[in-house]
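Table 4 source record.
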Amino acid sequence: MIEMGHYAKGLKNEFGEVLSTVIERDGTQLPLVVETCIDFLHANSAHETEGIFRKSGNAGNMRAIKEQFDKSNDAPIGQSPC
């Protein structure tokens, strides 16, 4: 049974869930969204960019990425979803 978070009923939430619930449900050590972000950072050498996490992203883009990840466990990381 899928636990319901704060998004639409029936979605497999990555956000707004207890971390231990997500990793137990998915059988992983890290949530898929975290692995996807790490892969993106490495693929684009972004992990070598000083200050990369000092500025917040666009709230609308972040919300769209979260919703897309909850719907399909895939989101356009590094692309504008709007």
